[in-house]
Amino acid sequence: ALAVQRSLNSQLKFPCLDRCGKTSQCSRLVSYLEGQGQSAELWRFPDRSTSVGQMISSYLSNTSQLDDHTIHLLFSANRWEKRSLMETKLKTGTSLIVDRYSYSGVAFSSAKGLDFEWCKAPETGLLDPDLVVFLDISPEKAAERGGYGGERYEQIEFQRKVAKNYEVLRDASWKVVDACQPIEDVEKQLQEIVLDCVMSCQKGKPFSHLWS
Ligand code: Z5A
Questions:
Q1: 11-201 carries CATH number 3.40.50.300
Q2: How far does residue 195's CA lie from ligand 1's centre (Å)?
Q3: In what residue span(s) does the Thymidylate kinase-like domain sit (predicted)?
Q4: Which of ligand 1's atoms lies nearest the C-alpha of 105?
Q5: 105 touches 120 (CB < 8 A)
Q6: Per-residue pLDDT tens for 174-206?
Q7: Closest alpha carbon to 97 in 81, 86, 108
Q8: What residues form DSSP beta bridges with 206?
Q9: How confident is the model over 35-91, as pLDDT tens digits?
């Protein structure tokens, strides 16, 4: 009963470490898909435009303090508040390129010591992406990139724990792309992977849900 037949749509999710280049690549991908005649939108989590998103944003910029469980649930709530719009967009044939999703929620919160399964629980029932792409970069290399160090989680030791958690979450269906290649090479690989996925989703595919 939960399965809804999809028409022209796909959801592609980018978890990853900070500064791996996902924001740059996600917007390039949307332009690429549009150039291929596809309807596509760029989404990102946290979505800082909502009232929940603003609470998350002040936490990340260290202007407010919150208990680790509380901020985890806020990140999850921020995805739930967008869930029905996400489903509507997909049903009407728009592909969504999503910069971070539930995987980041679990990888970052459990790096603080929260129980892994507890972190997954509030994500249960959110839409499962058609494709997850992991932009692979070491915490050390990421730290050498522009703008690193401004927000709460931008510390190498913490990012190492996050990287280990992504290894636990990662399954064989994830596509892993080396994020240390030149930006244009990463872009080219992503275009191929993503266009393939978008095309296969056009054949019609039922929705599935995390974490099943
Ligand atoms: N978080 C969480 O705890 N729980 C959750 O549920 C979610 C998130 C969803 C904010 O996320 C924090 O929230 C994040 C996880 C946590 N914390 N951390 N760390 P965010 O996504 O809003 O912010 P971010 O991870 O800090 O992303 P970012 O700063 O936007 O970085 P990016 O998207 O990975 O990279 P970029 O902006 O595209 O590029 C960074 C720089 O590298 C820039 O100067 C580029 O020109 C350069 N770059 C990009 N690609 C390359 C290549 N290939 N070579 C060389 N240089 C490059």
A1: yes
A2: 23
A3: 17-189
A4: 6
A5: no
A6: 999 999 999 999 999 999 999 999 999 988 888
A7: 86
A8: 5
A9: 999 999 999 999 999 999 999 999 999 999 999 999 999 999 999 999 999 999 999
